[in-house]
Structures are given as C-alpha cells and as structure tokens.
Amino acid sequence: HGLERAHHITRTVSDDLGRKLLVQFLGLEKAEGSSSRPLDRLEIETPMLAGALTPMRRPSSPAVVGALLASATSIGRAASSPAAETQTAECLTGSASFPEELQTYHVMNNTRVSPDSNILRVGFQGRNYLGFDDRTPTCISVYSPNAKAKSYSPISLPDERGTFELLVKSYPMRPGGGVGAYLCSLNAGDTFEAKVKSKRVVHRSSDIVGRWSQVGLVAGGTGIAPLYQLLQILLRDDTSVISVLSINKREEDILLKTELDELARKHPGRLRLTYSLTDENKPGYESGRGNVEMALRALPKPSLKREVMVFVCGKDGFVESYGGRVEREKTSDGSKGKKIQGPLLGILKDAGFDESQVFKY
C-alpha cells in the first residue's frame, strides 16, 4: 500500500521543493561526480521503484532496498493526513491544479490577429505549467461576469512554463454568453477566472501520442485552436503524418496561417495543409465549406482503418455537416449531460470513414 501511495503522490515531481521532499523521504542523492543535468521530472513506476531512478543513484543492496520500502510506506502514512495532502498539492503538482479548482489568471498582452479574433498571452502563479503533462491537450473553462462559462483550448503547448496563449473570437455580447467579447476586451494587467477541465477522452483514452500513423484535422474558423495544440504535440512527440483542412470565410479570416505555414516548412513530409474559403475565390485555395471530394483530397484515406483518426472542431453547424451532431447524455434531473459523440453522419461518413476514425469536439 505504501508503494502505491508513494507512486500516487510522486508520479510527477517538477519543482525544487518536490525534489527535496522526495530525497528526504527516500534517502536518495545524486551520484557523486555525475554529469547528468538537473532532474526536471522524475516518474516513478510502481512496482519497480529502483528501476526508474536515473540519473539518481539506484539502491544496490537489500538493506537499501528495505529502507526504500520503509520510506515509501511512511510516505503513504504521511500523505493520508490533511496537512500532507495540502503540501502534496502545493509542491508536487508541477502540472495543473485540480480541475475543479477555480484560479485567477492575469493577461500579459492581448493582440488582435483578425477582424474579430484576438490572441491573449496569459500568466499564472503557483504551478510550473498549465497542463496535466507534456503530451495531453489542455482545456480550460473561462468565466466572465454575469455570463456562463465557455471552454477554450490554449494554442500553446501544455508544458509551457508560467504562461499560455488563448485564441479567442469576439462574438457579440448576449445574455448568458459573450465570454469571447469579454476576453477580447481585457487589457494587459487585467485578470479573469478559469479552471482546468478534466482530460478529454478520445475513444476510451486521453492519450494521443503513438495511436495513429495518419491524423486529419478539420477546422472551421476558431475550431483551429484545440487542433493546433494537438498538432504541435504530435509533431514534437509522435511520428504520424498530419493533414490539416482549415475552412474560413475569407483569406484575412484564416487563423494561425503564418504559424501553420511555418510548421509545414519545418516538417516537410509530415504536415500537409489545405485551406478553403467560403466567401471568396482565390488562387491556391479550395472553395466552399467542403464536400466528399474535398475531404478525400485533403484528409487521410479511410481505408487505413485503425491507423487513421480525423478530428473535427468548429461551431455546432460546422461539426454537424462533417460528422453529425455531438450529443449529450440524458440526466435524471433534466440538466445538461456530458457530451457524447453520437452517430457519425455527414461528409466524413459519406467519404467512407467510420465512427472509430472520427472524433468530434
């Protein structure tokens, strides 16, 4: 039990206090004369604690192993107290705070990037980075005064230290809404409240690295935001080939185009971009919201079966046209239930994809 508890509270150690705590309890120290760089994160795999302690010195005798087991047990006992739980939350969560915890974030700068969209660079204190880890896309719920919460996915990587970036469209203010307009109105130094949401599960797993050899990203307008974060993770940590289909009204409305083009330049052979415009015709662009023929040209082939996944993100009508409605579970009290994928319909079904190959945001 002690080992399991030690695994739970020390799974990710990413700050100086966490390292000191671990050294104190487990009696570990860096090997003398070691040239290894400082330990940023130490992941301890139960049940073989000793096998994952590099670049720290591994215990090499039964006596040391016995001491290690005893220390792990003491950690389990200590961690069961409220004070220990508080200290653990403060010093060992190098990733996000607990998802249900509302936090205050401050705007560092706010830049207009299209006629109706801004990018906010946001800072925060008390944690090293916003995300759960460096490979899991992050999403937050932002609250504005007298308005419902709205979900936003940062366009920065989830392990960016101390800051993150939000791409926000300034929809008009309306009763129970208008979070986008509220965020776009903030200036440097202003604050807002938000909380990190639970990990998004994509067909029974929150993992996105190492699952598919071909990935398609279909974005309508600001729907590119969560897909852009996912794209960056895959390009950095995976070997999959990625196809992006970004659909906007006009050329000036294409969000993150400079960044996407730069990524394509840096990753030739791994990233393919297709842009389509609905309100104007220009050389070098597809035309229209999309159809089966465009999908088959721009996205991975559905014949790849389990090797392919297509993500679709945008306004409800856009997502519905490509993959059918995202539905909600029924609840006994009539409240809004959890989102579920619902049946696959629309362009992607007509193009030959099946439900296991598509995920709708």
TrEMBL record:
Domain spans labelled FAD-binding FR-type: 100-228
Chain coiled-coil ranges: none
Single Gene Ontology MF annotation: oxidoreductase activity
Bilayer-crossing regions: none
Cofactor(s) this protein cannot do without: FAD
Keyword Flavoprotein annotated: yes
Keyword field: FAD, Flavoprotein, Oxidoreductase
InterPro entries tied to this protein: CBR-like, Cbr1-like_FAD-bd_dom, FAD-bd_FR_type, FNR_nucleotide-bd, OxRdtase_FAD/NAD-bd, Riboflavin_synthase-like_b-brl
The keyword Flavoprotein is assigned to this record: yes
Annotated FAD binding sites: Y152, L167, K169, V179
Protein name: FAD-binding FR-type domain-containing protein
Organism, as annotated: Thalassiosira oceanica (Marine diatom)
